[in-house]
Amino acid sequence: MPAENGALDLQVKAGSVKQEFEKQDELKRSAMRAVAALLTIPEVEKSPAMAEFSSQIRSSPEMASLFESIQKDSASLPTSESMDMS
Fold it and tell me: What is one GO biological process annotated to this record (predicted)?
């Protein structure tokens, strides 16, 4: 994994419209949801790439806060096992 967070490091230009800021925020949230899902895989922390990426997220106050929020949101959602599929 590269040293930079890619899409997570992108900044919206100063003259952008509100939709561009919202789009960037949703992109970050989507990336954090993907990371949260990956971290549910057993032994994923043994992957050097995931360990480095997780460390980068924790080192950024903005990303750490967003990730924590995503984890709380996903913990409150029903899992597919508990959902009534009838």
Answer: SCF complex assembly
Contact 66/29 with Cβ under 8 angstroms?
yes
Whether pTM > 0.70 for this model: the answer is no
Letter for the amino acid at 39?
L
Name the region of 75 (left: φ>0; alpha: ψ -120 to 50; beta: rest).
alpha
Report long-range pairs for 47-54 (Cβ below 8 Å, ≥24 apart).
Answer: 49/1, 50/1, 52/1, 53/1, 53/5
